[in-house]
Amino acid sequence: MKKMIISLAVALAASTAAVSAQAADKTKACFVYIGPKTDGGWTQAHDVGRQYVEKELGDKVETQYVENVPEGPDAARAIERLARSGCSIVFTTSFGYMDPTLQVAKKFPKVKFEHATGFKTAPNVTTYNSRFYEGRYIIGQIAAKMSKTGVAGYIASVPIPEVVMGINAFEQGAKSVNPNFKMKVVWVNTWHDAGKEADAAKALIDQGVDILTQHTDSAAPMQIAEERGIHAFGQAFDQIKAGPKAQLTAIMDTWGPYYVKRIKAVMDGTWKGGESSWDGLKDGILTMAPYTNMPDDVKKMAEDTEAKIKSGELHPFTGPINKQDGSAWLKAGEKADDGTLLGMNFYVEGVDDKLPK
Amino acid sequence: MGIFESILLTIATAATPLLIAAIGELVVERSGVLNLGVEGMMVMGAVCGFAGASLAGSPWIGLLAGVAAGAVFSQLFAVLTLSIATNQVATGLSLTLLGLGLSGMIGEPFVGEAGEKLPSLFIPGLSELPLVGRLVFGQDPIFYLSVILALVTAWFLFRTRAGLTLRSIGDNPASAHALGIAVIRYRYLAVLFGGACAGLAGAHLSLVYTPQWVENMTAGRGWIALALVVFASWRPARVAAGAYLFGGVTIGQLHAQALGFGIPSQLLSALPYLATVVVLVMMSRNKRLMMVNTPASLGRPFVPER
Amino acid sequence: MRIELEKRASPSQAYALLSPVIALALTLVAGAILFAALGKDPAHALYVLFIGPLTEIWSLHELAVKAAPLIMIGVGLSVCYRCNNWNIGAEGQLVIGAITGSIIPVLFNDWHSPLVLPLMLVMGMIGGALYAAIPAFLKAQTNTNEILTSLMLVYVAQLFLDWMVRGPWRDPEGFNFPVTRQFQDEAILPELLDSGRANLGIVFAILAAFAIWFMMRYTLKGFEIKVIGASERAGRFAGFSRKGMIWFSMMLSGALAGLAGICEVSGVINKLQPEISPGYGFTAIIVAFLGRLNPLGVIVAGLVLGLTYLGGEGAQIELNISDKVVRVFQGMLLFFVLACDTLSIYRVRLSLARAAREA
């Protein structure tokens, strides 16, 4: 029995080898995901990007992915496996894949690697990220306009610079509308636990917030907002289905066009390593879901802000800005540099929370 | 609705699935069987509950599907541990692992779908009573089921003949067998009940708590339910108290954060687990109490001699 | 129809050897049905899962990397389970071992000495053992159920690691990302060969398995473990200490879990980060049972399970099978092993006739 299986399997292996040789003229683009590709958040946004690539580039491209790859020792293996399977370019879509990506890249100098949200590059490794904070500035403004209690609730995942930056951007936006606006932050220490996120949403609402925003992945807070009749902002995805009356807008990660651009660069030989890309609203790497459930003047304000950010007229972190403890950070008119933003580990003045250390 | 009242409501929602799953496991353990598969049965209940609701278009059907899924899944454990006397700890753990994988597979088409929430009860007049109105008269149906389950289980175990028999089986299956009691059949029924309860608890998660399906959405709640049973030294009333205490700590730490106490959030997140350990220790220290209530044959396979 | 068990006078040797083979065969059949139901070619799927990873050198290395922690932890747990101490918190002990083992490379990053690595390994083992001593203490002194306490402590350990790498131990030059600084070269577990990533960890794992096999088979301690495991009363009559055994077995398994933790961090990740283990501590429970609580069996089980993980990834890429299918597959494998194991202790009879009487 066993022998039979083995011989069968060998025959099959030979046939698959033939198939992959046939596909050699296609460019193969591969993706490594941290979560399930249907997580309704971060990973799904990347997978939508991958599907966009297939749609745009049609039969010139072949895509492949591995999902649920933990950030520990398994990451390097999953990346290496893709590099070996003939991928021309590998996108590694979680911060924790940074060092594994570099390790594997060293072994496969001909394969190109792009790592999302990291800060280390190599001759065949680039990094890419999205200026999510631009969207968070807009929703901060909307929140300050729409809130009756003057307090918003922020469900935060884990205190990495990305998340801290988002909280600060939200605060900056809110302050620009209402200097007395308050924000309560709850850290749930997880990216994805619907129950916990729902509990946090309820706790915040019970404490008097009437607008919710989140930097976690599930749609649970949106559902709670809908149920309790308050407003909320979608995260990574348009969550209008979970909160038809609650969602004001959503910050949508839109990786597709970026992926297409980079894969095309691989095809025509213009891809260059060692670079870092940090695109924003103007490049379409993040987009705002339709502004809904708000009066026209608020909608107008949001659209104006969005246009100003796109044109470069407005930078959410423009001085004067003090740090939370009152010490000066940016002088009047000074804009935050990317390095400080990417390593942000302090709150700006006005955030009513103590940063977990 | 005042803040006090709404916090209590939130705690009740957080405690309900724990209470239901723990009551089910309590009956199982009273019969002398230790089923560590609660997490697995719960997650199966959650996925089948959601799938049922989504396919049939009614959360009530979903509820039934969740209960049925937990019950059916528990029988896999029952057949192995009771009929062919496998190690209960290992089999229970395997059940959890299998449940987590299987539920992910079943649930794949349902990820990201917005579910329909089981409607809450609302009695005009009574539900608007101050303080307790919503708490007592305006909750989701599973909350009432959980209360009824706890009461009926307490009554059954300590006030009925069948309950006495079940407990005697848990203490000494050999002598129960000698008295002509069908030990294995009782245990099958107990495991079935435990599975149905775990399924119901899971359905609560995907139909009431957060009406959606997310992989691994039980997130360790099945294990907490197991801890609660020991914590409660196998008494239904104490299980209820424990479930609400745990719910209270979980929700309380979120409020402490929102109030800006500035304690490391990791410490606050660890609190419910530490609290469980501390209370387990306190309960276990009291030897007399443990001796009286602990099913003496817990976890040991029983094979009837002929 | 009902199933009846009849205890064999002595465990059947033939079945003891045969049962894992039968279990594997049954899993293959059930797996083939599963894959066929999913519309995949079963033979090809099984090939990708079980044989594909063995056909390339680099993936053999990966197998060693994956199996090493599973074997290390599994062996320790097998001792625990043999004497009925149900430590299911190895994951937490692994995490704490990784933390204590990392004290030197994190705090004394400039110390370049050949002593660094051995000290790290020892400290990792001590950390894991001490963390396992908590549930051991609670069980021995206050009679608290170790299944639950050890499990609760897993969550606590993970949150503690999270706090450490975001707070006190965060890399000052790491843009505030939650990682510690990169370990110095002397703190890194050397790789075995140039052809891949396999490191000394697999050697430690196999040495540990053989050492414990020797202990179980040829020493008084091993005898003691087996006697207490078979019957606590018999152990008491023989003058063996139940409490002593709780301490010994829990701390031994904790130390091995801690060793696995520091080996992972030192050999594969080279720094501390919030996530250092994809659930090795829990998977090792399966490994222990799959290996039938026999240290040498655990080696085989660790390799088989590691293989299914590697194959699972291959299946995702080659067949578009989701990783959940692989987990179901692992669950089935374990169920079949458990069920088949019973055959060596009991004779199973299906009877139709006697159903009426007992009902």
TrEMBL record, chain A:
UniProt-listed InterPro entries: ABC-Purine-Binding (IPR052910), PnrA-like (IPR003760)
Keyword DNA-binding: no
Record Gene3D superfamilies: 3.40.50.2300
Protein name: BMP family ABC transporter substrate-binding protein
ABC transporter substrate-binding protein PnrA-like domain sequence ranges: 27-313
Coiled-coil parts of chain: none
PANTHER family reported for this sequence: ABC TRANSPORTER SUBSTRATE-BINDING PROTEIN (PTHR43208:SF1)
From TrEMBL, chain C:
Cellular location(s): Cell membrane
Organism domain of life: Bacteria
GO cellular component terms attached to this protein's record: plasma membrane
Transmembrane segments: 12-38, 58-81, 88-108, 114-134, 198-216, 246-269, 281-307, 328-346
Listed InterPro entries: ABC_transp_permease (IPR001851)
Signal peptide span: none
Protein name: Sugar ABC transporter permease
Molecular function per GO: transmembrane transporter activity
Topology of the protein relative to the lipid bilayer: Multi-pass membrane protein
Transmembrane helix is among the record's keywords: yes
Keyword annotations: Cell membrane, Membrane, Transmembrane, Transmembrane helix
Transmembrane helix listed as a keyword: yes
